[in-house]
Amino acid sequence: MRKLIMLQKYQLHPIYCGLALCFSLPFYVHADDEFDAGFLRQSENAPVVDIRRFNEKNAVLAGHYPAEIFVNNINKGHLQLRFDDTENGISLCLTPELAEILDLQPKAFLQSPSNAICVPVNTAISQVKTEFDTGLLRLNVEIPQALTVQRPRGYISPSRWQDGEPAVFLNYNANHYRYNNGNNTLAQSYLGIRAGANIGSWALRHSGSKNWQKSVDQNQNSHYESTETYLQKDFAAIRGIVTLGDFYTSGELVEGMSLRGLKVASDDRMLPSSMRGYAPIVQGVANSNANVTIRQNGSIIYQTSVPAGAFTITDLYPSGYSGDLVVEITESNGQIRTFTVPFANIAPLIRMGQFRYQTAYGRYRYGSEIYPDNVLQSTLQYGLLNNFTINSGITLHKNYRAELLGASLNTPIGAFSADATFAQSIFDETREKKNGYSLHASYSVNVLSTKTNVTLAAYRYYSKDFYTLRDVIWAKNNDYNLANEALRNSLFSRPKNQYQLSINQNLGEKWGVLYLIGSTYSYWGKSGVRNEYQLSYSNNWKRLNYQIGFSQSVDQERKTRDNSLYLSFSIPLGEQYVSSTFTHNRRYNNAQSSVSGSTGQYNQFNYALSAASNNQNNRSVSANVGYRADVGDYQFSVGQDNQHNRQVSMTASGSVVAHSYGVTLGQTVGDNFAIIHAKGAKGALVTATGMGQTLDYFGNAIVPYTSPYSINYIGIDPTHLPINIEFDSTEQQIVPRANSINLVNFDTKKTTMVLFNVATPKGVILPMATEAKDDKGNLVGYVGQGGVLFANNLTKAKGTLAVSWGLGKNEQCYFDYQVNLDNESETMQIYDVKCK
């Protein structure tokens, strides 16, 4: 008799179920104790299954098992273990891969590892004790410390670094902003791309952008600007990366610049995690739906649209380590405001005996210009003492030479860094040598007792004859006569003194947080100073969050300082936030209120509605919606005021990745990312991202970020897949090299789901964990509760199965079967059979 039944969709592996029934019972036994197999009887007169092979704790069957490897309780990583049936029973085999991950002294090995034959670990390694936990899939190895190789915590052997797979990707960030005031229409469009291709351990990368601007009286179509194009490869022998092409040098110590040439630089990410050792946060206030553009070193590094009110940008990736960020806010009425966010890194300390280096040579680049001038730049840091680092650097050009010497010191009262740069400049017109110097000091401290974080960076240019390489190259290639000092000061805006201060003070649980950031600039040949600062205080009362702040910025249109005072409130109402912001400056009093929120199981939808007014009788309303999909991020905003100013903006970002299994769309990816492939597993949840991402129709998905030279866990959740889809594993480890694109392949199998209600000759119920094999001796399933045989490994539609619960002839029986082998069907087939 044949029965068909649809089961609830849950993931079930019959082999694991049968084994779990045995292994989940307590095997914590003494030397000669044995487990009573009678516990597995289905009834009083039922036969008893032979479980002698499981009388030892955590006994396993021969085969391969994924496992976490622990040596003396230290996690060494993930590996596929091999267990073979040897003359001494089931033994763990010492493979070359296992020997490598154990990381033992050569004298620990009594026999050489092998893949050809099984070399039992317990006889091949001296004084070793092993225990395989079948429940946790964990191998515990105990061995005398003298036989292990002493490594820093988090060490990963370079032999485990993975090159990844050949692949090509393209990140895109497209933004269109348009406003109309009745008399004029301005449209701004921006397209930024980050593209790359990988072959082996070589990586090709390119970044660039293009801007369009159109209005009634002008049509500006900028050229495509390439910011970076380079070929890169890492080398473990030099603990560094070689770069060839258009790249940026690090401005951590010396003047950061863009070159076309060759760079060799150390990479601290190659160090163990315990031996490893900044982009600033941009905050501002928009009076309407506005466009925010951020520039560094003359190039646009970020552009986005923001709704009215306070905004915070935390996902910047500035190129190099030097160069303040110029933030430009374009309001919906065309007004443009700018302010500067200081970006001055304190040279970090490095551990005693370690070094950090960079050497670069090539032609000088600035923006889209490539100059014929060749430049050599080199830096070196060395940890002389545990708390003292020496910093040095040199920049060479035929008309310029700059040498830096400094040090960083860690003390109980904070971290100090100081350096001096001596520069010699030659201008072609006069051939006169200008010798100058600059002194730089910085200080940073985080006082835990008072919850105070202070960063003070003071750049002091005491010499009026100090110039940068950019000054010299720019003058040389623009034919300026710089004999006149006033002209030099006017062209270069040469700093005389620069002070920057940042304080973040937590006042306690009930008293909020005080934040201050400020900077003062003075220049040679110019009177007065320029001050920019922001002071804010934030706190909450019950569910009400509030912030009050004062800032000073520069209004680009009027070339004056703009002092602004603002007050903001927000309170959650269910899944929504209601907020209000009040802003006062010397020209306007603005009030803005909004309702915002997100929805969806993973908050993938977001929205905001806002209204604003000011004392100039201007009123406006706006709306913003966004959607985070598996294939990208999308934002849309629209607004209008009572002066007939209308605004609309659209933003889209994401990635397109071409790989060996096709083309996959995804979120914006980093230089390191992973591709998941699981054939036939459409809809499986990607656990690595935590954003509700699922495998696409082809069983592919993109994990947008991975960490190089570190263990990354990539997993999927098959809970909502059909029950006839089985996985060999649902989590894997990868250790990517820098810039690698790793393909993580999850092996899947579609099976025919068959249940046999087995009746024995004497009518007794078969014991749980009884094995069933086909006529070739292949295991096809196990007996579960109620004497039901779950056979999901059938390879023939018709045949004979042998059911065995012991070694005697009276402890086994046979039955013939005929089923419909259809692994595309999610229907469970149930048959009643008689075992003879």
Question: What structural class results from the helix and strand content?
Answer: mainly beta
State the helix count.
5
CATH class placement of one domain = Mainly Beta
Strand content: over 45%
CATH homologous superfamily identity of one domain? PapC, C-terminal domain
Q: Calculate the terminal CA-CA distance, rounded to whole Å.
A: 17 Å
Under the CATH scheme, the architecture of one domain is Sandwich
Organism: Haemophilus influenzae F3047
Subcellular location: Cell outer membrane
InterPro entries: Fimb_usher, Fimbrial_membr_usher_CS, FimD_plug_dom, PapC-like_C, PapC-like_C_sf, PapC_N, PapC_N_sf
Family: Belongs to the fimbrial export usher family.
List keywords for this structure.
single chain, 836 residues, Immunoglobulin-like, eight-stranded mixed beta sheet, PapC-like_C, transmembrane beta strand
Describe this entry's structure for a reader.
With 836 residues, the protein is mainly beta. Among the domains are: 98 residues, Immunoglobulin-like (Sandwich), CATH 2.60.40; 79 residues, Immunoglobulin-like (Sandwich), CATH 2.60.40.2610. It has five helices and 53 strands. The strands form seven sheets. The protein has a 24-stranded antiparallel barrel. The two termini are 17 Å apart.
